[in-house]
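fold-stage: in
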Amino acid sequence: MTEALWLVLKSILFMPSLPLPSNLRVWVLRRFGAAIGRGVVIRSQVDITFPWRLTIGDDVWIGEGVKILNLAPVTIGNDCCVSQRAFLCTGSHRFDLPGFDLVTRPIVVHEGSWITASVFVAPGVSIGPNSMCAAGSVVFKDVPPNTTVIGNPAHFKSQA
């Protein structure tokens, strides 16, 4: 019942491009079990699979069209930005097994990090504090603190 109600409210309050107040979206997410800090902005067309597996710190911005497929927990620390059309994906399949088994692993975005536009973050990845994943990057490995990654697959560009 909870999942069905979430799907209805998500389709009304999150998925349309309507400029609804962010604090309304935050309030609804909290009612569904998300742990969300102060000063969080959630723009339109944000697709969150399971709010009860989402933790967001203070002063975080989630841009238009972001997808959070949180079959496992997703944690976003304080002072982070997840830009337009980024995709945080905690699930994949074992194509090498006959049953195509589902594999889920959590994603952590540490404080002060920026996941820029159209970045894909794979299951099990940790983005280190004060790091940036450049636009369009595909991130399959952990990103160390104070690092910029770019490309497909993402490679280290610089360390601050």
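fold-stage: in (second)
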Amino acid sequence: MGLLDILLGRSRPAPPDLDQLFALPSAAVTLQAATGFTPTGQGAVCFATVEGAAFEQTHREVQALLDADTDRTGPPVELSRDSYGYSWLVSHRAPDQLSDLVNDLHAVNSAMEVNGFGPQLLCSLAGFTDGTGRPLALVYLYKRGSFYPFAPLPGQERRRDNALEIQVKAALAGDLRIEQDLSRWFPVWGAPGL
């Protein structure tokens, strides 16, 4: 940060810290106690769509790495694209394997970063539900190094449960680095893994 930044009151965002993802399992315990939401076993990493041989090689490396896990059932990582043109690498685990899911998300992010695709990384998310079908995601903003809750209202097109999001923010403030700027709580409508 330069002198001009200090004088003008500008600050730099927190650098990406993928190790923040490892706080999710303990935060899930707090989340369940405070709100009744439990992990679904699904999570995803979102990034700006990349074409080319280098990305295909990275995807194959991630696939091979996660295929090596013998405890996995189902596909390790699926690649999908959303209606906005973003790509998602989606991991499926049993609901009681949140630690393994976090390892998957960390491995995908790390592989993308190491292979030069860090600037394309947007976010990672882990899915939760309260047992009545109400979805919730804890979203990690890669470029901000922070989390925020996203709670779409089931059956209602493009509407969020803002009260639940604020409740989750308050409940997890001691467990996760929560994004304080609410304008950065971007909706991830139709996100795979949610």
